[in-house]
Model the fold of this input.
Amino acid sequence: MTADATVVNSKLEALERFTRPSSSAHTDNPDESYEPIILQFSDAVVRIRRTRTKWNQRHPIGLVFAELLDLVHAQGELIREGVLIRGGVSCGPIYTSEGRVFGPALVAAYELESRFALYPRIVIDPALLSEYRNNALVKAAHHALEVDEGYISRLIRRGDDGIWFVDYVRAVESELDEPEMYPDFLQMHRKLIIEGAKRFTGLSGPMGKYLWLASYHNELVSQLNAKWLKNYELKRKNVLISAKDIPVLQEVRSNLAVHRTRRKYRAGERTRCAEKKRYE
Done:
């Protein structure tokens, strides 16, 4: 129990460390800061960015971009600590008082996290994207909308289920101090997924999360430029997650292959029957 408690505490400390703003940016007057208000309850973290502060109304810096970029950094750093997180980003009225927090925005973020962030991802509320296009206080005043949207698009991705989420694996590349750190990050991400999946067998809820992560990881790796891989002396197959790493992937692929073979066989039978009828 002691060892387990130590591990949990270490992960909670990492969560707090990488989801809080730097101490140098701290100010006692929240109206004179762009930084978020942070509240943490065990493994749950609430980040609040106020749009109507004196500073932001005077010169909007792009709060949506700032928050999404912070989340990219948080997810990237926590991968190094072996911590996967999920959550939701929304907008709307929210109230804080002496450590308490409540309001429609908190409810919306909680529902996003509990109902749609089923995998280790941070889901983005469509209402936030709508607010972004219509509210000047959450965009950057020093950019044209098209330019600002370009920066936002590099931080998010739409999943196969149509839900937008923070695309940390791709976005973290441009945030690293040195380019050669990115291959190390990909290998670290790969190892975390494989080691996590080893704790489970067969298709289950927890395994489903790792399968989603493996798919997300592999999709990005499959898009890496061949010259980029060669430059770092990498082989794509050594960065991908295979059925050898997670056997359930083999089972899924095998079943799909059987279905495809059966469809092809049945299609061939229909074609031959049609040809025979035409011949007769």
Observations:
- The longest helix spans residues 247-279.
- Residues 2-175 form one domain.
